[in-house]
Amino acid sequence: MAEQVLVCDFSKDARVTFALAEVGRRPADASTFICASRADFDVALAHFLDAHGHPKLKGAAVSARRFEENGRLHRLEDGVEITRESLRETLDIQRVNLVNCFVARALAIPKLRRTERISVCEGEPGEETVMLVLGPNYGLGNAALLSDGAGGWTALPGEGGHSSLAAKTGHEWRVISALRELRGVVERETAMSQQGFRDLWTVLHTLNGQTATDLSVAEIIERARSGDPFAREVIHLTTLWLADMAADIALIMSATSGIYLAGALMDMIGDAFDAGVFTARFTDNPAFSAWLGRIPVWRTTVTDMELIGLATLFD
User: Fold this and answer.
1) Which residue has the higher pLDDT, 81 or 233?
2) Is 210 exposed, middle or buried (0-12, 13-18, 19+ CB in 10 A)?
């Protein structure tokens, strides 16, 4: 039997997802468990290994929303912590990679099938240079892939979600000012995240002298599909500002090999996402409009992208 590795993601809510992958191949079907504590993690891991006959592992890789610190990786929202040493002992292995979830998504990009992406901007793919992946969910993540010129890629993490959010119109300035009054500081992920999505819904009503009904992200999106002007504006602003961020990082890093929009919030917006609005804003740069227009942009459609990327660490 081919050597196998264990891949694990616990970047989404109080859940953990495990899969096994043969070295050099994409992971097999994944299993997801409730994981509200470290004890839950250990029980879920034991159950998963029991179900798969306790295979001999070459190594393991785990992703979460934070970065490794001194051999530890913890979940941002509740502090559930995984350590390299504990996994080495539990799994009887030496190699354990602890990875930021957006770095894992970036690593997955070269492994995506054509059916696992939707074109946003056609562009003109050139030589392999730099690719980007970014997108909102609980926060606003981003990472890059740098080509080595010989078919290989190196992942570069980023914290662009914590860069400042800029306005291009008077309306955007008023919305950002209202967000600042609500939250005290306005970073890009203040607006482009699940909480930011709900905050935009609130402040758009406030700016129009109305009180917003407290709705979930899914309910706001459903309102947008039904034609609600405030809900549609929430998605519109999210799209504009995501395009700004994509263009800014593309210019900074010369990311001519393509940009991938990922993240659960993008999946939830789904067909309510307007590629034309994104493209018009993405290329809204008098000096570099044509240059930006040559960069292909896609939306990813595959689930558990993190697991696909983690498996590549053992190729």
Assistant:
1) 233
2) exposed
Averaged pLDDT for residues 256-270: 93
Statement to judge: residues 145 and 265 lie in one domain: yes
Please give the Cα distance from 265 to 135 (Å, whole number). 8
| Bridge partners, residue 157, by sequence | 143
Distance CA 10, CA 75 (A): 7
> CA-CA-CA-CA torsion for 28, 49, 7, 300, nearest 10 degrees?
40
Rounded to 10 degrees, the C-alpha dihedral 33/265/114/303 comes to 0
Share of the chain above pLDDT 90, in %: 82
Residue 111 lies in a domain: no
Domain enclosing residue 276, as ranges: 123-295
Which two tokens mark 288? 């570099």
Cα distances (angstroms) measured from residue 3 to each of 17, 21, 54, 99, 312? 20, 8, 13, 21, 14
In this structure, how many other beta carbons lie within 10 angstroms of the beta carbon of residue 98?
Answer: 21
Residue 81 lies inside a defined structural domain of this protein: yes
Percent of the chain residues topping a pLDDT of 70: 99
Region for residue 84 given its phi and psi (left: phi exceeds 0; alpha: psi -120 to 50; beta: otherwise): alpha
Same domain, residue pair 31 and 59: yes
pLDDT band for 315, please (50, 70, 90 cuts): confident
Question: What is the CATH number for 266?
Answer: 3.40.367.20
The answer to whether residue 118 sits within a structural domain is no
Claim to verify: residue 165 and residue 290 sit in the same structural domain? yes
Residues 140 and 259: their CA atoms lie apart, in Å, by: 15
Is the residue at 117 inside a domain?
A: no
Read off the amino acid at residue 100.
Answer: N
pLDDT digits (tens, 9 = 90+) for 41-53: 999 999 999 999 9
Question: Which of 302, 205, 295 lies closest to 250 in space, CA to CA?
Answer: 295
The predicted pLDDT at position 186 comes to: 95
Cα(141)–Cα(121) distance, integer angstroms: 20
Could you tell me if 281 and 242 are in contact, meaning their C-beta atoms sit under 8 angstroms apart?
no
Rounded to whole angstroms, how far apart are CA atoms 259 and 247?
Answer: 9
